[in-house]
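Our preliminary data section would be incomplete without showing what the modeling component actually yields. Below, a chain of 312 amino acids is followed by its predicted structure, encoded as tokens that our downstream tools consume directly.
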Amino acid sequence: MSLPRRVRVTARAKLNLGLAVGPRRADGFHDLTTVFQSISLADTLLAERQPRGFRLIVRHEPAAERGRLTARTRAAVPVGQANLALRAARLAARHAGITGGARLTLIKRIPAQAGMGGGSADAAAAMAAIFALYDVRVPLAERLELGAELGSDVPFALMGGTALGTGRGERLRPVRGLRSFRAIVAVPAWRVSTAQAFAELDRFRYGLTARNAPLRFGKVTGRMVIEPCEFIRLGNSFESVLGARSPSFTGLCSRMREAGLLEPRMTGSGSAVFGLLARGASVRAVLDRLAGSEALYVVRSARRALDIGRLR
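Predicted structure:
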């Protein structure tokens, strides 16, 4: 079979259904326990073979059901060497001994710096695209290890579905039995620095993972049928250290509850906040009741992180 000239990769965002952060380790990272969940909101990466070198073009495509992201948010996506997708493509090529290159076009829909794993999803897409373009077979375990070199969330962005993450998030165990769900994700104009959020946890020691946190998560993952709220109620450590943003976060959660959304919770280190739609609830009715200027995304749980298609 001849090599494809182009491939298209769908790279899905994630939510953290629960997130407990522990103290800083000797290597500078923090131990954590979390439940990752792939969702339907996705970026698209188009990759075309070229003789040598890697080039990246970034385009933004609105995906919010209501509201728009700020220009500052769009500008937060690097377009040069700092872009994680470009770094991932080069890493994949080096790892596989590929001498050819690729022209990458990234269509961004996942909000940047919102705790939804957009950069990690793009990195996973780039790795998958390079391997597909050059028909290189790499076992999943090897890809996960390679992804961990790029970032703690990249292994999950490669695996997808529902998974319990431990270590710094790169140690993954698939979770079976989670009921599918719909949610609305609200992305406010304000942002949370992940580095600052970790620093605040270290400073105040809020929300540190108790010794029984992995056990609490493990008890839920061991059930035959799991409601998403069972994980969500385990909390998110980062909500404890929002500082000046705390009133805005609390107010947003209150408005989401008043609109009929269940269990509003921040994902990752924020700033995106998601709330579950009750089964049978009208999306339009909830959106109409939800006051505020945040960009709103209607999503559903997904079983895969990546879809790869060959193009002629």
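The radius of gyration is 19 Å. The chain has a mean pLDDT of 91. Preliminary results of this kind motivate Aim 1 of the renewal.
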